[in-house]
Amino acid sequence: MAWQQTRVLASGEISTKGNTRTAGQETGRTGKVKAVDYNMAIRGFAYWAAVTQNSKWGAIAKKIAKFYY
Prior knowledge:
The structure is a single chain. By secondary structure, the protein is mostly helical. The chain has 3 helices and no strands.
């Protein structure tokens, strides 16, 4: 989670800079270009907030959700 946190911009957007899989270079089985699974990132941060009882992680989940929703 600490590494993933470094990829979350102040706006809540998840940066794909330097990512060779989800920054427009790789396609999936359907031919569609892969993108960041922001739903999984939100769930991951929210889950870790619940497990650790650390509101810092929940705040990151909310920031991501606000950007994408």
